[in-house]
Amino acid sequence: MHICVLGAGVIGVTSAYRLLEAGHQVTLVDAAALPGSETSLGNGAQLSYSYVAPLADPSVWSHWPEYLFGADSPLTLRPKMDPAQWRWLLKFLAACNTKRVRQTTVDLLRLAFFSREQLQQLTQAVPLDFQYRSAGKLVMYGDAKGLDSARKQIAFQAEHGCQQQIIDAARCVEIEPALANAKRDWAGGVYTASEEAGDCALFCRQLVGAMSQQSGFRFAHSQRIHQLEMRNGALTAVHAGQEQIDADAFVLALGSASADFARRAGFSLPLYPLKGYSITVPLIDSANQAAAPQVSITDLAKKIVYARLGERLRVAGRVELVGMDRSIPAAAIDELKRGVSELFPGCGDLSDSASLSPWSGFRPATPSGVPLIGATPVKNLYLNVGHGSLGWTLAHGSATLLTQLIAGRATAIDASPFSFSA
Q: How big is the CA angle at 275 (ends 272 and 278), to the nearest 5 degrees?
């Protein structure tokens, strides 16, 4: 079967790989010249299999004024005259209850653990170099109350296969010596030894390069989709650039642009973009490298994550519900730079923002945080969308799950939590 995958971010690239592996002819289409050029380009780089708790959480209710009006809040809401935003927000608030959050966490943990297995299998089969590392992760807490509340979540997740430890500040520094220079006081942290990191965009580009060696694969790059052809409830072709691409089936993996595509195909997707920012700090000498962490770090209070990528440090943060505003405010980059200066002073020259590759991206999220994988009301159009901030983490399992669903085979994990209903 000829399958056209729409979107060459990590979700689309991994989908294309698994479909090609299953014996299909695959065309991968993207508006950019290179794979992984949008949301996958500057993401937080952490593969956080044990940290999947959704943004929708009961604590949202008590923090709502801060999100609306707080200048320093890591989550920002800018209300717009946009019905899609308000519909999403109402569904998001409905998902902010303990019962729903716990079920979502279980569903996402199951998909995350499956995704880890699939990435390990892929890297054994295909030689790729994308700064992949398994050095563990520390989530740092500045107050004892927050650390104590983490115990409940850790105990709950332990029932579902997570192996995590609560440790004091001294033990955190033993695990990650670079924290000894932090200009912050810590109550302690949560350590997960099995967490990983890697350069998502580099992964996408190398995997597309590997697939391009196979006759059944084609990457139609620099081709923006501008027209759909429908017949008898099916999608028969897309027009991308100057080309018409006919296929037996299509996979929608266009990230935040998927909602617009779905509208043109005659149905509505509950997606909204969560905007985030990152910088990538070059570690140009041995002193910089010694001052930077080896272990992935999350500063929970500031919602900033740090991941080592060889001789670079990826620093990412913020969640903004501001629509598709592509600007990169200096204040957002300054916030990330301050985070580096506080936690890892001396790890790099932060004076020239341009040298830090400032980035903003739009993480396509469903209100509950559960991605949508599988069939749509259009009989030959399939979804792989809505992974929010967990796209890099969940991509590999999602791609295999999608491939099994398209084939009509029994799935390796329960696919029902990820099915779309109009």
A: 155
Query: What is d(CA 308, CA 375) in angstroms, rounded to the nearest whole number?
Result: 37
367, 270 contact by CB (below 8 A): yes
Shortest CA distance to 11 belongs to which of 237, 239, 251? 251
Q: What is the DSSP-derived secondary structure letter of residue 409?
A: P
Task: State residue 18's pLDDT score.
Answer: 98
Which amino acid, residue 176?
A: E
Q: Is residue 340 domain-resident?
A: yes
Closest among 379, 368, 383, 378 to 415, alpha carbons compared = 383
Where in the sequence is the domain holding 79, given as residue range(s)? 63-83+131-195+272-365
How far is the C-alpha of 36 from the C-alpha of 48, rounded, in Å? 19
Work out the number of other CB atoms within 10 angstroms of the CB of residue 259: 21
Query: With a cut of 50, which residues of the chain have pLDDT below it?
Result: none
Q: Which SS3 state, helix, strand or coil, does residue 131 take?
A: coil
Whether residue 9 lies inside any domain: the answer is no
User: What is the pTM for the complete model shown?
Assistant: 0.96
Dump pLDDT digits (tens) for 270-279.
999 999 999 9
What pLDDT sits at residue 36? 98
Residue 275 three-state SS = strand
Asked if 192 contacts 157 with a C-beta cutoff of 8 angstroms, the reply is: no
| Residue 293 resides in a domain | yes
Q: Is the dihedral of CA 321, 326, 331, 335 positive or negative?
A: positive
Q: What phi and psi, each to the nearest 5 degrees, are found at residue 148?
A: -65, -40
Cα 316 from Cα 324, distance rounded (Å): 18
Residue 76 lies in a domain: yes
